[in-house]
Amino acid sequence: MQPLEEPVPLYGPEYKRDPYPLYTAMRDKCPVHRVTFPSGVNAWLVTGYDAAHATLNDRRLGKNHALGNDGWRALASIMPEPQHSQLQVHLLHQDPPKHTTLRRLVLDFFAPRRVESLRPRFQQIADALVAEFPATGPIDLVERFAARFPFLALAETIGLPPALAKDFRREWGKVVAPVGPQDPRRPEYERLLHGLQSYIAEVVAHKRQTGGDDLLAALVTAHRNGTLSREELDSMIFQLLVAGQEPVTNQITTALVALLRHPDQLALLHREPDLLPQAVEELLRYDSAFELTTWRFLAEDADLHGRRVPAGDSIIVSLCAANRDPERFPDPGRLDFDRSPNPHLAFGHGIHFCPGAALARAELQIALGTLLARLPSFRLAIPEEELDWIPAVLGRGVSGLPVTTD
């Protein structure tokens, strides 16, 4: 069958509100499509589950930006020099053997056993946040909880001290947005970028002075002993601070929206909170906040699931489209907490499987469990069509979620 008219635009309010009809149409035609983003970047999008799974494990594909061609680099490599070289050499943009070395530095700190040991502290954080909810009136669950809890839990996990954690600005996460050189928002983007760099330098200086047995101290030690370059050290901290909390913030919002759209499942969780672990897995599948993967590249022209893809063109995988593939998930548009097995790809697969998956799962379980206990009945305080879905290229979520219990 012929693909949709290409390149297929992957942007706009309607797309961000509900991308699934488009993903269904694309997946039904063929597994790989040429797509375009607001910045003018074109890419090859992989949609079906089997194709996505194979692509995430395809050793022909590399993540290093040096593999991208000049056309991609001019538009998609948005971070200017020298910042691109200083902050973009982290795990997501590395291939073996360097990727193996960097990943080994963080794995123990995100291991399931260690995350479980931190659960009581995470629960204390969540309880403190909901204790500050107003007794009456609408509550914005993003402002009051979802935008705060994941970062505070991350700070505990990586060893970011409270004095520095309170100075972190969530808006620094916008430095991963597609703001090209000609975009009128570019001056503000560069201001945020410089602010984040200064913050990372402050974190490094603090850990050099205080040491410790936490992840940030371990990374500083790895730089001191020559395992990490200074650019790699700063990039790893950049990745932790930005990618380590914003996706969980967004996943809390997509989960809550899904529950509000399915009051029967919301009521089921109120009645049976022990269902939370499997409910979280289904909510991750149903509407993953990490909608698209970051770029991958072929070193040579090659076939990719029936399409000829030139070397250096960007290739991305739609995790959301794969997780709604009816060939793998019967009745994929149904939210089903009894779904088993549930091999969703919300955290990716292969060597780039999210190292913080255990942490994210614990945060989501604690966040939803705490909110459901604090808000035994809640509903949207605005019409659903007024929800503001973030225009992020790779992620899904809402910028605000006002609810009422009245």
From TrEMBL:
Biological or metabolic pathway of the protein: Antibiotic biosynthesis; vancomycin biosynthesis
Pfam families reported for this sequence: p450
InterPro entries: Cyt_P450 (IPR001128), Cyt_P450_B (IPR002397), Cyt_P450_CS (IPR017972), Cyt_P450_sf (IPR036396)
GO MF annotation terms: heme binding; iron ion binding; monooxygenase activity; oxidoreductase activity, acting on paired donors, with incorporation or reduction of molecular oxygen
Matching SUPFAM superfamilies: Cytochrome P450
CDD domains in alphabetical order: CYP107-like (cd11029)
Keyword Heme among record annotations: yes
Keywords: Heme, Iron, Metal-binding, Monooxygenase, Oxidoreductase
Main function: Involved in the coupling of aromatic side chains of the heptapeptide of vancomycin.
Name of the featured protein: Cytochrome P450
